[in-house]
Structures are given as structure tokens and as C-alpha cells.
Amino acid sequence: MATTERFDSIEAVKRERERLRMLRDQQLVQLTTHWEHFREPGLQKAIGTGMVKVLTRSLFSWNTAKDVASGISPEMIGGIAGLAFGGRATTTAGKILAMGLSAAVPFIAERIGKSGTGSNVMSELERSWQRVKSYVRDRRDARAERRASDGQ
Asked: pLDDT digit string (tens) for 77-91?
């Protein structure tokens, strides 16, 4: 560990404190102007739009869904189901029902996975998802063409 530098006099201490205060004030001004840029409505809207695009593309991507589904075990599904069902249960009967459902969900998921039905279900889901994406893309293109023709 390095030794601490000692000041020669109290005046040196005062000069150093004043220098550090000026440095702090400069940093505060820079930080304040930096955060003022984030208060501009145009920048906030651009950041929000970008975040929504990134989140929707990553969350609703089929590859993301397959990756997440492949890493989830039946026990994890039971825990997630327990959290989802148990968090809403307020009565004793509701809590017992949530406990039963969270115990049944892993069993059902394991049975679907073993029987091969799970892969059929996943392929059907993938096909349906591709159709939905195609339909939305076609509607968006048609709307863009309609707007372009109305503008001319």
C-alpha cells in the first residue's frame, strides 16, 4: 500500500480542497447538461420506440421461444405455475387449487414431452406463428401501398 502524501501547511490543504470543489462543480455541470438531453421529448420518444422494437422482436421471435422452451424443465414449469397461480390465490380453497395445479403442470408437461405430442404441438405452433407473421406483414404492406396511392 502506498503511503499517504502529507500536506506541508494548512494553506496547501485549503488550496487542495478548493481545487477539488471546482472539479466537483465542473462535473456537476456536465452531468446536469447530460441529463437535460434525456428530458427532450423527441429523444425520449426515440428511445422508447427503439426499446419497444427491440423487446417485441426479441420476445416474439420464434427462435427465442424455442430456446426458452428447450431450457425449461418440468420442475421449473411447476415452480412458475406455482408462482403464477399461488400469487393470485387469496382464499384457502384457492391456495389448495393453486397447489394442486402447480403439482399437476409438471406431470402434464413431462407426459407431453415423452409422448412426442410436444414436438407436434411445437411444430403446429411454429407454423401458426409464421402464418400470423405473414398475415401481419401482408396487411402492413397493403396499408403502406394504400397510403402511397392516396398520397398521389
From this structure: 667 766 666 666 778
